Amino acid sequence: xxxxxxxxxxxxxxxxxxxxxxxxxxxxxxxxxxxxxxxxxxxxxxxxxxxxxxxxxxxxxxxxxxxxxxxxxxxxxxxxxxxxxxxxxxxxxxxxxxxxxxxxxxxxxxxxxxxxxxxxxxxxxxxxxxxxxxxxxxxxxxxxxxxxxxxxxxxxxxxxxxxxxxxxxxxxxxxxxxxxxxxxxxxxxxxxxxxxxxxxxxxxxxxxxxxxxxxxxxxxxxxxxxxxxxxxxxxxxxxxxxxxxxxxxxxxxxxxxxxxxxxxxxxxxxxxxxxxxxxxxxxxxxxxxxxxxxxxxxxxxxxxxxxxxxxxxxxxxxxxxxxxxxxxxxxxxxxxxxxxxxxxxxxxxxxxxxxxxxxxxxxxxxxxxxxxxxxxxxxxxxxxxxxxxxxxxxxxxxxxxxxxxxxxxxxxxxxxxx
Length: 418
Fold this sequence. Notes:
- It is a single chain.
- By secondary structure, the chain is α/β, with parallel strands linked by helices.
- The chain has helices spanning 2-15, 90-100, 120-146, 165-175, 188-194, 263-273, 295-315, 328-332, and strands spanning 35-47, 53-63, 71-77, 105-109, 153-163, 212-216, 219-220, 233-238, 248-250, 259-262, 277-282, 342-346, 353-358, 365-371, 376-382, 386-390, 397-404, 410-417.
- It has two domains: 2-326, 3-Layer(aba) Sandwich (Rossmann fold), CATH 3.40.50; 336-417, Immunoglobulin-like.
- The strands form four sheets. An eight-stranded mixed beta sheet has the order 1-2-4-3-5-6-8-11, with helices on both faces. The chain has a four-stranded antiparallel beta sheet with strand order 15-14-17-18, with no helix packed on it. Strands 7-10-9 form a three-stranded antiparallel beta sheet.
């Protein structure tokens, strides 16, 4: 119970931040009272997993009464494990309304769903189809800007993002650039049959370049796809996400599918390659905690909108005090988490001691324990194959155990003392 009270308090503090004067109010604040929505705009078509042809549509959200002639665009992809969901899902609908009131144009896309089998063999092609469709929607807006210019989009400021499966789609759309990166799961001929990474869902010949990516509870098949020179990223993820892992782990939408690298590992990779990743951790939060009408979900949505807003205006070079700063102390405590140094950590939760076994028995480790504010409350070194972490005079609650080897590689494990 104390954990949830702490989370609620931290959310309240974060969303209570007061904005300071900005170089512009548009994009930084809600400057439009209304949002005009146009549903079922066709942006392409392609063949589904079962051989039928699907018309691909999107819903467009525009600030009511807007007269600007160039406007930034956010394209959102919904969740649903690649077998369900729609452009009208409540979380992407809410995000679209919230950002349209700030002066953005938002598009929430439908993409091809379904799979021949609910496992990695069936779902990996489903991810590729979703990626192809998202890229077709990006090209659609480039095409419009170059021709009819109905939507007055500033193609220098196009962003993509999504929630859960939609975030997985956005991440792979931008960071899985090489065919070889998917050959672990698909043969070259299978990828060719699908239409390649760019696909044939429409608007061929136009750009797919974006200014930034918004990752809400998503993951990459390999964090190494995110490399030097990659497009900057904004990530938000809960530490207790049991569907898409916060760190390295199994995607499990009810059935274990495959191991992936969640937002925490992507953040660690961003530090290694020197590319911006504005990373926010929802401590103790489950999958998509901002979805739903409950007061707690609404508070999470407020935090999400404020943190993403800060990323977007930064990418557009708008100077403004952040509404929702990241939790830098906690982020600093999880840098360089690119390997698993733990063989086992038990019992966890514990009332007194936690036994830690290391993968490599012949190494020197630095052991640090962080509280949820990112402060180091215990620190030690050991060259033994195991380590006993004592609760001592620590209060009950959530902690994070960081172990670092001589190479600077590190792993983190959540510890609960009760």
